[in-house]
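Suppose a colleague, Dr. K., hands you the sequence of a protein chain of 255 amino acids and asks what its three-dimensional shape might be. Before reaching for any lab equipment, you can write down a predicted structure in token form. Begin with the sequence itself:
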Amino acid sequence: MRQPLIAGNWKMHGSRTDNAALIGGIRGKVDDAPGVELLVCPPSVFLAQVGSEIGSAGIALGAQNVSEYATGAYTGEVSATMLAEMGCHYVLVGHSERRSLFAELNEQVAAKFAAAVEQGLRPVLCVGETLGQRQEGETDAVVLRQLDAVIDLVGPNGLRNAVIAYEPVWAIGTGETATPKQAQEVHAVLRQRLVEVDAELGAAMRILYGGSMKPANAAGLLSQPDIDGGLIGGASLDADQFMAIAAAASEQLKG
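The predicted structure, expressed as tokens, is then:
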């Protein structure tokens, strides 16, 4: 069975005081979710602090973005080498907000993915469709184009340690959530593509759901056969909510 991963994307939230309280709350409830991998992704300026707050609690540290460039005159960018040196194990690539607000195209996302892999980071590749694309019946084509851009660049070996997160753009920060059936359908499409590339890779790949997952709907989503965890936004800023979702994932391990 694939180990569930519950990842918190803090987006542009946090302060030294709030971060300490949030990590303290999560640390105090780690035992509520046995068997579940936990990941927090704070803003890059707080990576050192959060890494220190995590200590030996068994919570992974991740970044929210990475440059496709290794080094050079790229003011404001942060390289994969730097993130690795800061203690990051994961990094989000291709989040819908990066794609929509900062015009990141599939090719740039793939280049960022490759840069992360090169430095031993585990990319969390975010894919998803807008409401208009869903209404036009383009969901499968959109998410497969986003996935294929990465496959074409790094091949199956480059995907071995990665994670995929399906995040319907229309359900991010809106309070709307894909139904378990809707989410499972897209997760199954993504897994089938991976199986076509490499059967072992497809079976082992963790595919998370991101899109207003919260304690009230987590169990239904996590019960689906191809949903292996969650990429959590707003609920990740509250330790009780975040760990309630993790506890729901842990329950699934009991069968």
